[in-house]
Every structure is written in structure tokens, then in C-alpha cells.
Amino acid sequence: MRFDEAYSGNVFIGSHPSYEESRVVLYGMPMDWTVSYRPGSRFGPARIREVSIGLEEYSPYLDRELEEINYFDAGDIPLPFGNPQKSIDTIEGYIDGLMKDNKIPLGMGGEHLVSWPVMKAVYKKYKDLAVIHMDAHTDLREHYEGEPLSHSTPIRKIAEHIGPENVYSFGIRSGMKEEFQWAKENGMHISKFEVLEPLKEILPKLAGRPVYVTIDIDVLDPAHAPGTGTVDAGGITSRELLASIHEIARSEVNVVGADLVEVAPVYDASEQTANTASKLIREMMLGWVK
Asked: Which residues does the record give as Mn(2+) binding sites (predicted)?
């Protein structure tokens, strides 16, 4: 896919027609080849775009509207069905191109494994990169039933790549005991159950640094986001997640890339998950693009 060609399908509300004039590139990663429970997240990006038509372009939280920032919806990266390794390589190559053009990548998943090649590509440009990770799950496994390419492994992969001390996880409420032990022994930060308050404590320590933010929609309680592959009770509210996005916006960190993953529309007939994700994407763009 060429970056500078306008996407012919539905685009996210307010998308600018010019790649060259846009600072942010919104794109989809429609992959769910390695999920361990329920598939369907490959349909997330398309549905998030479709429901965005119901959004206002103005954010009363931030007093900004989408026309104040130029962003380009490039559509979905064409990924080879059922081939995780080739898909990962394709995503990394795509992001390499965005980094070369000095764009801010904003991805929509897709399963969480898609975040790994994006973070890897962003790290090539920003060697002082820190990762903020919001999720119900640790995602620190080395493999899932012998398979290292799994949606339960991306945070372990990036932690080993950039150093565990540069990875900060929030909202975690599920994972193997060995995953928590590995994080503790290797200096990785994990905040269990909560996001906003521990995030407030960490952000000043990251002031001035390039930061990549990855959000798994299942950090929300299933009452707020039932449309995901691995629901997990006891999560945060959509209000707290919005407040956390705005807290990052008010901080002095430099967000150089982000993604929102694991929206699986088929499990939510009400479409509240896709609509929530759409609003989150709007707030991420308006809050993090200075």
C-alpha cells in the first residue's frame, strides 16, 4: 500500500485528503491470527471508522476539533491471512516508511501482537523510547503453548528489546505468576488494577522523553467494552480511560506513536465498544498531537 494514496473505503471522521500535509497517519492492522480465545479483532479497524460518523469533531474535554490537526487515514495495511511472521514483517516495513517521512503513527488493531513490530520500528528512530501500556493482561509470556508469535507476548518482546525498565504497564489484572515475577526481577513497572492515579505518578519521570502508548480495549471492564476477544472482569471505566488519555495530554511527554487494539465488533451487538474506541481515537489525536 502506498502511504500517499487516499483510502477508497470509509475513513475516520475529519480525515485530511493529503498524506504530505498530515502530521498523523491513522491506519488499521486487521490481524487476529494468533488469538488464544475469540477471534474477530481483524474487523475492528473498519468498524471503528464506520461508527466514527456519529462522533462530533469537537472535543469538549480538550476544547479542540479535528480540523485543528492534519491527519490522514491510510486505510488498513493488507496483511496475508493466517501468516503471523509475514504480517509482522509487513507492518514493520510500513511503519519504517512512516518514520522516514516523520509521521506519527496511530494504529488500530487487530490483536495485540500487531503492536510489537510498530514499537520495534519506532524504536529505530527514538532510542530513548519509553512504552506506556494499558491492558487487562500482562502480555509478558515468552510463548503461548510453544508459539512465540502470540497476542500474549508483545510486551515481553518490546521489554527485552528496549529494556524492561523503559516499559510501564497499567490496569493489569490478569497474567501468570511467572510474568509478574519476571517484571519485578527485571525492573519493569506494573500497576495492578488501576490506571489514572499510578499514571499521574509516572508521567513526570518521563517528561521530555519520546513515548509510545499502546492501549488494549480490554483494560476497560466488560461492562464498558464487551466487544473484545478476551474479556476480563474488574476493569476500569471508560471515564477513567478518557481521563488517563487527557492526563498524558497535559504532561510533558512526547507521544511519538500509539495504537488501540483488540476491538472485536462481533461480540457487541450494541456497538458500544466500537463507538467507545472511536471516541478514544479522537481524544488521542486531539490530546497528543501538540
From this structure: 112, 135, 137, 139, 216, 218
